[in-house]
């Protein structure tokens, strides 16, 4: 990425604002010595703004950047002295959004250990499999998961919230930390919507490039107050944490998402920005907005597709502040849609940010023309380093296959049609569930919609639509079919229309298709 662009973007976002020379020198020294990992980012923030509030959580805990760093260092020293953790080990983190999760990740990085971010929605059996496959030495977990971790292998040290506080309090003085012999990696588990998740190794940034790619298109600024509603164990929530540390922001965290509580926190803490997943925006719209409205300048979402109509509905209430990032655990980011893009085309994934290459290729590896569906390949500075199992994704000319299908329109906007393996073939016709879902979501009675393919003896597959309605609303299945038939081709009409109380989702808001298929045995 070219230097003039980096300097211009950092200047616009307030990162090059002059400060006390000794603190600026200490900040740069921290980055030079500790690098751009989460530990390095926390160190630079503590060096430049030691007394600034770093984290506020709903239990009333407020920590400055210096206090957060001190606690993470004490935890790291105790893990090394008392649990024998060293560079190359793996520390699992099974926590909801609170300061303890951050401290555990940073402590792992300070020791050169890998932090494995564990999805809080995993079953006990899945958790045991993850612990074995990732060869965890330690699992730091919230107290609420005590029963779920009982079946872990005996060699895994289990540290609950009380144990974490005891390790921090009992750290020996004078045992100074030095940069480890190897950088610790963050291992993010794939969403696991179809079974046991895979571990994906995230690279450590090597400079300002990744940060600049994001904040050039999403106007976040130094010392903003940011509420991170997306789970921190998810790629999007973790990315928000990295950006917040880089900007020396104040981070507001809640263990669980609740729309009314979230709106109250946004107003109380005068939040400038929020990171969320799309389903959270749907829930926020079901609660009356507070008066006065939160002073939001940015609401950044990622993790799943924006349902049809959600973007304009949200912006009509909270202003043109919505930014939609399309990416994945493997490619980090691919494209970003701003408010103007979403007003023009509410389901668009936007355009690639600076320094990102995006191509749509056919199965022979050749580019497809505008308007035609192709496989989405992406190249940027933060492509993952492979799965911990040793498996890799298909690449082409330095670009990584996202596994998604999409198309680019004449204006250069990307539209993601869905996963390649989610495409339904019904009677020889290709159908993308997202197109039908977006249409159904626009019915005023529908709270949320999901469409899947189910076996059919005549057509191979047929479409089944699952609809969760707003309280007190009703719909006739035949009326739903006629509605779809009016707008889409006949092969896109769902033969089965099933009404449910809610759609089953994982902790990051993605619909669990395997749960829906249980209706068919």
Summarize the structure in words:
α3 crosses α4 and α4 crosses α5. The longest helix is centred in the first third of the chain and has 18 residues. This protein has 521 residues and is α/β, with parallel strands linked by helices. It contains 16 helices and 24 strands.
How much of the sequence lies in strands comes to: 15-25%
Mean pLDDT: 92
Biggest sheet strand line-up: 2-1-10-9-11-12-13-14
How many distinct helices?
A: 16
- Based on CA inertia axes, which overall geometry fits? globular
What is the rounded distance between the termini?
Answer: 52 Å
Structural class of the secondary elements? alpha/beta
Number of strands: 24
Low-confidence stretches: none
Radius of gyration: 23 Å
Largest β-sheet summary: 8 strands, mixed
Helix percent band:
25-40%
Family: Belongs to the ATP-dependent AMP-binding enzyme family.
Keywords: Ligase
Organism: Micromonospora coerulea
Pfam families: AMP-binding, AMP-binding_C
Topology:
Blueprint: H1 3-12, H2 21-34, H3 38-48, E1 53-57, E2 62-64, H4 65-82, E3 90-94, H5 99-111, E4 114-117, H6 124-133, E5 138-141, E6 157-159, H7 161-169, E7 186-189, E8 199-202, H8 209-217, E9 225-228, H9 235-246, E10 250-253, H10 259-268, E11 273-276, H11 278-284, E12 298-301, H12 310-318, E13 322-328, E14 332-337, H13 339-344, E15 357-361, E16 374-379, E17 395-396, E18 399-408, E19 414-419, E20 424-426, E21 429-431, H14 433-441, E22 446-456, E23 460-469, H15 477-487, E24 496-500, H16 513-517
Helix pairs in contact: 2-3, 3-4, 3-9, 4-5, 4-7
């Amino acid at each position: 990425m070219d230097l003039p662009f980096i300097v211009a973007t950092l200047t616009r976002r307030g990162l090059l604002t002059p400060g006390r020379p000794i603190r600026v020198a200490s900040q740069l020294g921290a980055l030079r010595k500790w690098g751009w990992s989460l530990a390095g980012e926390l160190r630079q923030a503590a060096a430049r703004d030691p007394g600034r509030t770093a984290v506020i959580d709903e239990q009333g805990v407020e920590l400055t950047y210096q206090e957060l760093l001190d606690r993470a260092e004490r935890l790291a020293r105790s893990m090394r002295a008392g649990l024998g953790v060293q560079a190359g080990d793996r520390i699992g983190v099974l926590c909801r959004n609170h300061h303890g999760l951050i401290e555990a990740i940073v402590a792992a990085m300070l020791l050169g250990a890998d932090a494995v971010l564990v999805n809080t929605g995993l079953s006990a059996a899945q958790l045991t499999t993850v612990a074995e496959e990732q060869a965890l030495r330690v699992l730091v977990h919230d107290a609420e998961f005590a029963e779920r971790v009982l079946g872990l292998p005996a060699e895994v040290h289990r540290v609950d919230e009380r144990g974490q506080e005891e390790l921090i309090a009992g750290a020996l003085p004078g045992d100074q930390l030095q940069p480890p012999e190897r950088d610790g990696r963050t291992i993010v588990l794939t969403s696991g919507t179809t079974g046991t998740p895979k571990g994906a190794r995230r690279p450590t940034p090597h400079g300002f490039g990744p940060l600049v790619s994001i904040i050039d298109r999403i106007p976040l600024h130094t010392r903003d107050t940011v509420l991170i509603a997306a789970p921190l164990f998810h790629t999007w929530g973790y990315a928000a944490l990295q950006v917040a540390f880089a900007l020396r922001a104040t981070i507001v965290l809640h263990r669980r998402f609740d729309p009314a509580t979230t709106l109250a926190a946004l107003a109380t803490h005068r939040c400038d920005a929020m990171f969320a997943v799309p389903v959270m925006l749907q829930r926020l719209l079901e609660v009356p907005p507070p008066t006065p409205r939160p002073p939001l300048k940015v609401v950044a979402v990622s993790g799943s597709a924006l349902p049809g109509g959600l973007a304009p509905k949200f912006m009509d209430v909270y202003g043109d502040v919505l930014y939609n990032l399309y990416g994945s655990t493997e490619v980090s980011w691919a494209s970003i849609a701003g408010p103007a893009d979403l007003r023009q085309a509410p389901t668009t994934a936007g355009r690639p940010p600076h320094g990102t290459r995006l191509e749509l290729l056919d199965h022979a590896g050749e580019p497809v023309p505008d308007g035609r569906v192709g496989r989405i390949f992406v190249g940027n500075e933060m492509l993952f380093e492979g799965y911990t199992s040793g498996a890799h994704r298909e690449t082409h000319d330095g670009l990584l296959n996202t596994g998604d299908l999409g198309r680019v329109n004449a204006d250069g906007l990307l539209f993601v049609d869905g996963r390649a393996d989610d495409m339904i073939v019904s009677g020889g016709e290709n159908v993308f569930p997202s197109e039908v879902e977006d249409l159904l979501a626009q019915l005023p009675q529908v709270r949320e919609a999901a469409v899947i393919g189910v076996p059919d003896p005549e057509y191979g597959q047929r479409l089944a639509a699952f609809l969760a309605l707003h309280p007190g609303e009703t719909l006739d299945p035949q009326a739903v079919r006629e509605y779809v038939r009016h707008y889409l081709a006949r092969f896109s009409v769902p033969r089965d229309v099933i009404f449910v109380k809610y759609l089953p989702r994982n902790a990051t808001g993605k619909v669990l298709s395997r749960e829906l298929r249980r209706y068919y045995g």
